[in-house]
Amino acid sequence: QFSKMIKNFKLLFLLSSTFCFFLNTSPVKAEAVEIEDNSGMSQVTNVNQLSDVQPTDWSFQALQSLVERYGCIAGYPNGTFRGNRAMTRYEFAAGLNACLDRVNELIATATENVVSREDLATLQRLQESFAAELATLRGRVDTLEARTAEIEANQFSTTTKLRGQAIFAVNGGGFDGNSIIDATGATVANDDPNTTMIFRAGIDLDTSFNKTDLLKLRLETGSGILGPNGQPDGGRDNAAGFLEPSFGSALDYSINPPTDRDIELSRLYYTFKPSENLAVTIGPNMRAADFVDFNSYAKLSFRDFSTQAFVNNYVLFPIEFPSAGAVIDWKPSKRSPLAVRAAYTATDAANPSDQGIIIGNAPFINVLYDAPNPNIPNAPSGGSRGLFGDNYQGVVEVEFSPSRDLALRLQYSGGEVFDNRFDAVGANLEFTLANKIGIFGRYGYSSYNNTNFGDINPNYWMAGVAFRDLFTRGALAGVAVGQPFIADEVGNSTQTNYEAFYNYPINRNVQITPTLQIIENAANQNANGTIYTGTLRTTFSF
Q1: In Å, what is the CA distance from 240 to each residue of 99, 289, 539, 540?
Q2: What predicted TM-score, i.e. pTM, was given to this entire model?
Q3: What per-residue string of b and e applies to 198-217 under the rule 16 or more CB within 10 Å gives b?
Q4: Are residues 513 and 539 in contact, defined by beta-carbon separation less than 8 angstroms?
Q5: For residue 69, what are the β-bridge partners?
Q6: Rounded Cα distance, 376 and 16, in Å
Q7: Phi and psi for 14 in degrees, rounded to 5?
Q8: Would you give the end-to-end CA distance of the chain in angstroms?
Q9: Class of residue 126 by CB neighbours under 10 A (exposed 0-12, middle 13-18, buried 19+)
Q10: What gap in Å lies between CA 501 and CA 503, rounded to an integer?
Q11: 423 forms bridges with which residues in the sheet?
């Protein structure tokens, strides 16, 4: 029986050499250990336990002998043997060692005449040939066990992952003409703004209890300065946001969060799945735009476009951040091209009274309405507060995406701002050519009642083109143009924004992005000269 076993060993060694030959590698060359493939292998006691081994296979008898007679062949946790895949010398050495151990046991309990001198010599040569591989494998396993023990002893949490991001940006710019005025005609600046160094930094604590849910907690800080009302006013720490703060010209990552170097809780919500195709999110600190109006080329201001009006449909989200509410995301099936999302969010949801400054509105809302201010006598109250009071918005989005290269999203948003009704509809389109060129755009039409300019119907549009892997793998470049707030009642012209960027990845964790912005007719005023800004953005992710 040992002679038959040696023949099986010879067969396995022949297979190993053949694999090495076809891989153009020497059978004595050491390859890296594939930890993922080797982990979780379990001993089988019957060849029928291997689902991918059939009696018609040419090696069936050899496997049957090694498994059932000698018990020295392991299978994978899913019950497969994977006999068609290439093997490394380390994998062969591990399997050979298991069989050699079994042979040693049999030799120890048998007489010396059972095994011939030739068979023992063959076994000895095999042991000597793979001595280096076995020693290396043993050392790697010992190292892996030590590292695993260290991780288990020092891990942050068994359910929570820690992620972080820091954005540094140098920004500067100027304008043509003598001054810049806002939408009401008030003077914003008489001189070019100073060059600034701005930042945003945050950490995410992502917790999952059953692998299908997510508890998101984000702590952030930023360089946003205090506004005229003494409240943190993100966006004014960069040239575009300082010269034109109302109609979406500010750098979006500066606006979020609107803090003056204070650490704040900027996200807190929980997502779970009552069924396979339905996800529900609830939270006291969230943002509706995080869940709807996605676009592969114009959404993430730390990666692509920075202009706030290019990141989301500007007239669709009068309630920006922070807010509380709920979101549902439903897809009929995994392969269905349709998806439906709905969100409800309200600002100042933790306030049971009807007093206090309401924060979280988009900047253009402060142009359309006089925000309540308890420091000003006879100022408007702003309506009721709490989760179902003023200000609130509901958003519904239907997405049609028949392939990864095409997506169309139709949206509706409605609610109240300072006791006044608003409604808006939007469209979001993206199309990818040859996996490299992206064409995209958004359009919005809205109505805002009883504003400082009467009942108005602001329009919005933006369009652009992006290029993936430009000059290097992982890079992204883009150019876009748009008009964030088209309303004849506000100003005497229409503001137009342009932006060009090139995101260059240094590695997986560091990206450098130069950005150029141009703003014409800022604040819808034709008296304003052209505003131009430049930014060098560096994003660190860990």
Answers
A1: 72, 22, 20, 23
A2: 0.72
A3: bbbbbebbeeeeeeeebbbb
A4: yes
A5: none
A6: 85
A7: -65, -40
A8: 58
A9: buried
A10: 7
A11: 414, 447
Residue 375 C-beta-side C-alpha neighbours within 13 Å: 6
**Do residues 422 and 277 lie in contact, with contact meaning Cβ atoms separated by under 8 Å?**
no
pLDDT on residue 88: 75
Output phi, psi for 251, to 5 deg: -70, 125
| Residue spans of alpha helices (H) in 80-213 | 89-109, 117-129, 131-154
> CB-based contacts of 189: which residues, under 8 Å, 6+ apart?
175, 179, 180, 242, 243
pLDDT of 418-477, one tens digit each? 889 999 999 999 999 999 999 999 999 999 999 999 999 999 999 999 999 999 999 999
Q: Compute the half-sphere exposure of residue 276: CA atoms within 13 Å on the CB side of its CA.
A: 4
Tokens 């990845």 appear where? 505
Percentage of the chain with pLDDT > 90?
Answer: 55
Residue with tokens 């005449």: 113
The CA dihedral of 68, 70, 74, 77, to the nearest 10 degrees, is 40
Place of tokens 């920004």: 171
CA distance 101 to 121: 16
For residue 155, what are the contacts with CB-CB under 8 A and spacing of at least 6?
none
Quote the tokens at residue 87: 């093997």
